[in-house]
């Protein structure tokens, strides 16, 4: 890329950068705002409206990639997906801290894919480690208390570990940023730069919601919709809607079942993140499988 032209940037980069700048400014000026329950509420609404739809296209992606053809195959795909997700929930219940650590590692791998076209694998790894580690660097206590809600008191160690990873990754991010600046890769430079700014000024949940809902999810959605022939787009969006609503109903049911056992913010947080972890495993396996398949197809 040559000189910076805003119009040449992907729409999600612009939307994310604008939201991150606004959030950093407002929270930088009024650092005490946003009670925790409000942050959790914001996270819940945004994840359902903007985050879930990007996984809701998985059945369509799987069919298109040839994982199944007939209705029976579709049923099998859905059952397999749910079974994998349930297995993750079970693993979380049995080994909450190991599950959390694995979730963080899998997520780093998954989020690194956001820069697949722009960065080399080692640069992507650093970017993803910084992405997840920075909240623990700048808001150690908040991240530790979220981890304790998700995985019990021992999870403070995971927050400390993540902080160390974040510190190293932040240091390693400097040369990556310099390289992208030298190569005039404005899109990545703006995205990573704004992530750092956001991590400094926004509490972890606000930081995550702005990244996940305004950068990660829209990027994946846009790429998938671009793959669909024009005539199929309506049915694609309808499918995303149905899957999102079905997931929402399930999540609400789980949250309602858990309700007698604790406080509302804690239950919402658990349902959201353990739910995200559960969905990420089949979602990522599918992405890996389709990528492999594409790589095997002779050009
Ligand atoms: C819980 C938590 C974090 C990690 C969230 C992760 C790891 C989410 C992964 C979601 C995925 C993989 C979605 C798939 O599309 C942060 C941001 C470190 C800090 C705040 C608390
Ligand atoms: Fe994703």
> What Rg, in angstroms, do the CA atoms define?
19 Å
What portion of residues is helical? over 70%
Point out poorly predicted stretches: none
End-to-end gap: 26 Å
Give an overview in words.
Helices cover 81% and strands 0% of the residues. It has one domain (6-27, 34-293). It has 299 residues and is mainly alpha-helical. Bound molecules: retinal and fe (ii) ion. Fe (ii) ion is lined by residues 54, 110, 216, 220, 283. Fe (ii) ion binds next to α10.
Give descriptors for this structure.
299 residues, mainly alpha, 12 helices, 81% helix, 0% strand, binds retinal, binds fe (ii) ion, iron
Summarize it.
By secondary structure, this protein is mainly alpha-helical. The chain has helices at residues 11-29, 36-55, 58-64, 71-94, 96-112, 121-138, 140-151, 156-182, 186-201, 204-227, 233-258, 264-296. The chain has one domain (6-27, 34-293).
Q: What's the structural blueprint in terms of helices and strands?
A:
Blueprint: H1 11-29, H2 36-55, H3 58-64, H4 71-94, H5 96-112, H6 121-138, H7 140-151, H8 156-182, H9 186-201, H10 204-227, H11 233-258, H12 264-296
Helix pairs in contact: 1-9, 1-10, 2-10, 2-11, 2-12, 4-5, 4-12, 5-6, 5-12, 6-7, 6-8, 6-9, 7-8, 11-12
This protein binds retinal and fe (ii) ion.
InterPro entries: Blh_diox (IPR022270)
Function: Catalyzes the cleavage of beta-carotene at its central double bond (15,15') to yield two molecules of all-trans-retinal.
Keywords: Cell membrane, Dioxygenase, Iron, Membrane, Metal-binding, Oxidoreductase, Transmembrane, Transmembrane helix
């Amino acid at each position: 890329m040559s000189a910076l032209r805003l119009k040449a940037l992907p729409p999600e980069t612009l939307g994310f950068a604008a939201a991150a700048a606004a959030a950093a400014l407002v929270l930088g000026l009024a650092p005490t705002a946003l009670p925790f329950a409000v942050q959790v509420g914001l996270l819940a609404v945004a994840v359902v409206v903007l985050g879930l739809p990007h996984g809701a296209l998985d059945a369509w992606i799987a069919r298109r990639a040839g994982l199944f053809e007939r209705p029976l195959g579709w049923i099998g795909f859905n059952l397999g997906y749910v079974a994998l997700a349930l297995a993750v929930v079970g693993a979380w219940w049995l080994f909450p801290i190991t599950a959390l650590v694995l979730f963080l590692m899998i997520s780093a791998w998954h989020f690194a894919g956001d820069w697949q076209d722009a960065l080399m694998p080692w640069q992507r790894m650093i970017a993803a480690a910084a992405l997840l580690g920075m909240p623990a660097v700048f808001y150690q206590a908040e991240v530790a208390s979220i981890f304790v809600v998700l995985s019990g008191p021992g999870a403070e160690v995971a927050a400390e570990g993540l902080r160390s990873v974040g510190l190293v990754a932040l240091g390693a991010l400097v040369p990556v940023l310099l390289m992208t600046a030298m190569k005039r890769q404005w899109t990545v430079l703006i995205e990573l730069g704004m992530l750092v700014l956001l991590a400094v000024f926004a509490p972890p949940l606000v930081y995550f919601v702005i990244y996940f809902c305004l950068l990660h999810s829209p990027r994946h959605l846009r790429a998938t919709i671009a793959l669909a022939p024009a005539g199929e787009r309506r049915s694609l969006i309808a499918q995303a809607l149905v899957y999102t609503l079905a997931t929402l109903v399930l999540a609400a049911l789980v949250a309602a079942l858990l309700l007698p056992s604790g406080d509302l913010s804690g239950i919402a947080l658990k349902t959201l993140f353990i739910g995200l972890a559960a969905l990420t495993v089949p979602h990522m396996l599918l992405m890996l499988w389709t990528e492999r398949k594409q790589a095997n197809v002779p050009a």
